[in-house]
Automatic annotation (TrEMBL):
This is Cytochrome C oxidase assembly protein COX15. It is found in: Membrane. The keyword Membrane applies. Its main location: membrane. It comes from the Eukaryota. Its cofactor is heme b. Pathway: Porphyrin-containing compound metabolism; heme A biosynthesis; heme A from heme O: step 1/1.
Amino acid sequence: MVVLGGYTRLTNSGLSMTKWKPIQHKMPQSDEEWNEEFEHYKLFPEYQIQNKNMDVEGFKKIFFVEWFHRFVGSSLGVVFTLPFAYFLYRGHIKAPFRNRLFALLGLGGSQGLIGWWMVKSGMNEKPDYQSKPRVSVYRLLVHLNTALVIYGGLLWNGLTLIRKPQELLLKPEHLKGNKTLRFLGIMLLHCIALNTLSGACVAGIDAGKVFNDWPFYNGQLLPPNMMEKIPAIKNIFENRGTVQFNHRTFGYLTFTVGLITLLKGRKLNLMRHQRIYLYIMFGLISLQVANGIATLLHGVKPMEANAHQMMAICVLTSAILMTHSARKPSKLYGMYLNKFIV
């Protein structure tokens, strides 16, 4: 779903559906219905500024991408809600897990509203920091961040259900390594989140196309005019050069923290599956760095950029798997294990 959202953004399809129909998800069927949708699309800045030469056949292509994105989102809501309601009714879900699922359900419902709130911003006159009609980069950040929280929450809680409790896995000799790996994993997750959100800023204002060399910026060590906007904080989100610089910097930071985690983890007394996750995590981060550089040098083509976003989700997944494997044991079992630590 997150990758599909990225594809919708990269193909400039997100503003094609100018009406919000949270219940009705039927595609236009007749030529009359298509023409009606197209005429309504013509009332908004994206058509008037960017797509004046588009015909109804071209409109159908971008409309389908946005329609499919919304359809999948609604379908996911049904797939989650119906089984949840059934098991809740049968009394199979106990607190506090029930409360976590209610929170995820609430986030999922709000995500649809956030998505429309984001799309609405692209139907107004474009702000100065955008070269073309686009959704607000700030609202895009909220939309992506909510998606990542939902994904992370689903994955973490799913792992909690299917994995054996730490009390059945942890031995006294693993306790120190488990604690250190958990700390490093949490640090890495913060870096990945920052880097992913900075990537959303890159996509939101087309910052990936402003410099297409590496490791420099059109031959310079730093982008020019990095602090030209006032107030200065706007440069973090609206200055294309600064936004690309931030994304590269967070990428270097993520790679560095991943490397430190690998080197430190190799020396720790870890369980076998933790060590496997450690190597998978660093392998995916290394691939993501190479993929990001290649995407940049090739001019940020939509399919390559979408693959880069897909890899970001894979990196996040590997970090969650690793960190979850190092979760805390119960308090009583932790106290018991500490008796064996000299």
